[in-house]
Design brief:
Blueprint (H helix, E strand, L loop, with lengths): L1 E2 L3 E3 L5 E3 L7 E2 L10 E4 L2 E4 L7 E6 L13 E6 L13 H4 L14 H9 L4 E6 L8 H13 L3 E6 L5 H10 L2 E5 L5 H8 L4 H13 L2 E8 L7 H15 L4 E6 L13 H12 L4 E5 L8 E2 L6 E6 L2 E4 L20
This protein binds iron/sulfur cluster (SF4) (2 copies).
Length: 334
Amino acid sequence: MKVASYYRKLENSIVRCELCPHFCQLKEDETGKCHVRQNRGGVLYTLNYGCVSSMNLDPLEKKPLYHFFPGKTVFSIGTYGCNLKCRFCQNCKISQVGVPAEELLNEFTSRQLVMMAAAKKDSVGLAFTYNEPSVWFEFVEEVAELSHASGLRNILVTNGFINPGPLQRLTEVIDAFSVDLKAFGEDFYRTQTQSALSPVLKSLEIIRNSGRHLEIVNLVIPGLNDDELQFEMMCEWIAQNLGKNSVFHISGYFPTYKAEEPATPPELLQRFHLIASNYLDFVYIGNSSRFANNTCCPACGNILVSRRMYNVDIHGTDENGSCNQCGLPVFQNF
Ligand code: SF4
Ligand code: SF4
């Protein structure tokens, strides 16, 4: 447990958390919507500091990050809590709960985790993932700083629902972001996730302007966010505001947690892939072994990387990640 970084003291021992756009105002002993920030005696504490719920060595393609050291792995860790309430959350057992009592005293130090990450063969560094890592802000910042000092890279897999100040700070210590853009309508964000779209769009612009690596993920849920016109508007917004060369993953959904809608049909993913490809150079279909996800050079069409799920074969680039036929630089982190 540690004092939180972003909050303001109000009258009568009330505190206002300023980490995310919910701006929870908490009386003494109250906990925020994320389950992991609590007012104790007029001071806001982060309850999940140092608490690790999950750790694994994952392929970068699983984050998903396809254009950040393709074919390598990353030591991935998560904690408890999330500031959203997605009905379709695949990690609800750790995201929709606070830190279990038995885990409160079971803290890892940043040094322990960085040493574990550094010992992994073929791994680029550390990924903060599984639950929402922005609600782990203080620990992520500390671990990421130490990880950088040890020559490792840091990755954040996030919903992007965080205020600009803390996000700017994270762009100083995080090298690559995988951000969910769950839909292109405020209505979906409000009813399906109990949050809002506009702060996520702002976060995407901040990350893009920071120069850090960014990939975007859209989970397509039949009947909820599969409106073609809205999807096309989203692709157009990405191209105009983040660049035509943005990396965009269209992901298939399976019923889970509170969501009972049927799984995304492959034909829908294919149709959306076609629409997105009219606007963006790098579009992939995730969560489905039916589709190859090759990276082709947008200039000459050369196949640079062949992929199926997590099997990666790099055969069309030079040693710097440029196309070996026309020389176009495609991968900045290779
Ligand atoms: S981080 Fe948690 S406590 Fe802070 S505003 Fe967001 S939901 Fe509320
Ligand atoms: S943002 Fe991610 S972790 Fe949080 S509830 Fe939604 S799907 Fe789950």
